[in-house]
Amino acid sequence: MRVWIDVTNSPHVVFFRPLVDLLEARGHEVTITARDFAQTLELLEDAGLEHTVVGPPHAGASRTGKVRAMSTRLRALRRFARARDFDVALSHASHELPLAARSLGIPSSYAFDYEFARAQHGLGCRAATRVVVPEVIPQSRLDRIGARSRKVRRYPGLKEEYYLDGFTPDAAVLDALRVDRDRVLAVVRTPPDVSLYHRHRNPLFADVLERLGHDPGVHAVVLPRTPEQRGTIRAAAVPSLLVPDRAVDALSLVALADLVVSAGGTMNREAVALGTPVYTTFTGRMGAVDERLVAEGRLRTLENAAGIAVERKQPDAARATRDPALLLDLLLTAL
Asked: What is the reported pLDDT for 197?
């Protein structure tokens, strides 16, 4: 079977990495297309996943720019796939893939775990053959974006628990970043400023950088999403902040950290799965997955930077993993 996977953002690389291994172990041929955005291409290279860059880079926060770039990339995806006779197409929040696949008569699965990115999910859900989501998202929210119950398949837990199955952190990432192991290690992820669903400015995030960055007992590794964010944070020259030059082994970093502060979603849930205390500074509408984690006390909302507990993580922190084969089998129900 010929399987087409489209990867358009950094978290999609770790989501698909174990699934690609499973597909190839079952004898299937996998082709990956990608978009140049954030550290996606660097992470694909680091993971050893062969890929073809298709279409223009991410178009930034402008709605007009996004529409123009999507139209261009759709045409490019169709050209790429037309002669390759794919049997199925798989994506996680790449809404362009099910649109291109539907126009070519290719069955597709569209996965996501944040239901309020309505503009893109409305397109992806309506075009896809199958929609794969966490079981905690209410069907009423899916109905609003065109994911009717007949095409929805659900999985228990967090998507992060599936791709972290068998994961062992590599402490070499600490040496590469020159982390002082005598300090409390914090990992900080910048806000998704270019996302349409996250238009609110996030002053709390700047306070977090000040709080952690001026604490001599802390080393805070800041993981920016864009070169502009990297340049801005470095220009501030805050003494306890470390800003990598490129993509790093963020999973190992989160697993080894004492705490995580993130304005996004995926890294928060990776920390939950890896047993690392985590705070969210997200200012958009919280999705069902994170609502459940907050209710269970596994994800902490942060109202001010003073609320961060700067302390060592408990050494016996519990981790949660699940069998990625279950997730893959749900995606393949598009056939």
From this structure: 44
Reported as a single tens digit per residue, the pLDDT across 246-268 is 889 999 999 999 999 998 789 99
5, containing H or E segment: strand 2-7
Dist. CA 137–CA 287, nearest whole Å = 8
- The pLDDT tens digits for 274-323 are 999 999 988 788 999 999 999 999 999 998 999 999 999 987 767 888 99
Task: Tally helices (H) and strands (E) across the chain.
Answer: 14, 13
Contact 180, 174 (CB under 8 A): no
Could you tell me which residues come within 8 angstroms of residue 169 by beta carbon, excluding any fewer than 6 positions away? 251, 252, 255, 256
Which residues in 42-145 belong to E strands, given as ranges?
A: 52-53, 88-92, 108-111, 130-134
**3-state SS assignment for residue 209:** helix
Are the C-beta atoms of residues 217 and 310 closer than 8 Å to each other?
yes
Contacts of 294 (CB under 8 A, 6+ apart): 280, 286, 300, 301
Q: pLDDT tens-digit profile of 60-81? A: 555 666 667 778 999 999 999 9
Q: Which two tokens stand for residue 285?
A: 């509408």
Give, in order, the Cα–Cα distances in Å from 130 to each of 112, 124, 300: 11, 10, 33
Contacts of 204 by beta carbon, 8 Å cutoff, 6+ apart: 281, 283, 302, 303, 304, 305
Domains in the chain, CATH or no CATH each: 2-164+323-334 (3.40.50.2000), 172-307 (3.40.50.2000)
Distance CA 54, CA 235 (A): 33
Q: Can you list the alpha helix ranges (DSSP code H) found in 138-287?
A: 139-143, 159-163, 172-176, 203-213, 227-236, 250-256, 266-274
